Amino acid sequence: MRRILLLGVIPVARAIGAAAPLHAQAPGQQGGIMVPALSDQERWDRLSTLMVASFTAGIASYKALGKTAEDYGHYLGELFAPGWGAPNSGSAIPVARGGLFNYSSFRGSDAEFVSASDTAATIRFRRTHVAFFGAQRTAIGVSLDEYDQMTNAFNERLCAHLGLRCTIRNDGDWSYWTYTGRGRAAVVAFPRGTYSVTLGAQDVQNNAPLAGIWEFAWAPSGRFSVRQDGKVQVEGEYALALDQIAIRNETGPLACPGPATYRWAVDPTTNALFFGRLADDCEGRVQVLTRRGLTKK
Asked: At what angle do helices 40-64 and 69-80 cross, to 10 degrees?
């Protein structure tokens, strides 16, 4: 299910700093050695620091080979770009959201969207990596400027792969990243029609009645209907805004009482439709919409 990455469910390239929740360990004897307890935040802080250190070490190793920080950034961009989508399949908001998820993992980053439209998106975050380089702005023979050059080169390669343009501007403690344009293969209009997905027992653990063949019909009128094994279970209304879809006013045997908001994306190679939860308290609806991609009929 690699294409879920376009929904911001973080893929390999975005998984930096996106591990599963951590749990603090009580202090105690391990093999005769007393091990201190670390809180979840302390563990996350250490991981974030190690990530910056690993990138810095990568730059240092390239410099030792007579190459530059930009060379290392281009290498990383080419390595990770396929995990962000097929060539020329990018659009501004999903890619910006992926960057936002990455930098939200750093303590104190305060990552946020500044602006967004169908062809441009800007995010900003605090440059928490600056502290790693200390007062001299240098660590293991690598300067802060070289680290920033590596980051710029990485984004250059990533955006080129996805068919986007990107710019990075540092302003004091903040870094502003802007993505513009869209790839030739990008899908930016919600593809109305009828879609189906088959969910097995393993897909809906602890909610066995949700197993079966589901069909979603998204009509141009803003109405939708949902069938399970041929029987209408839900009808309602939907509204679109950029890459988000709002679901509301559901009726039927399996209707959810409250509204919901999801982001949507289409795999340009298979035309499968994917949804990612933004706000929804109805776990049954979440399971059916997000477990697998929906195939157009």
From this structure: 120
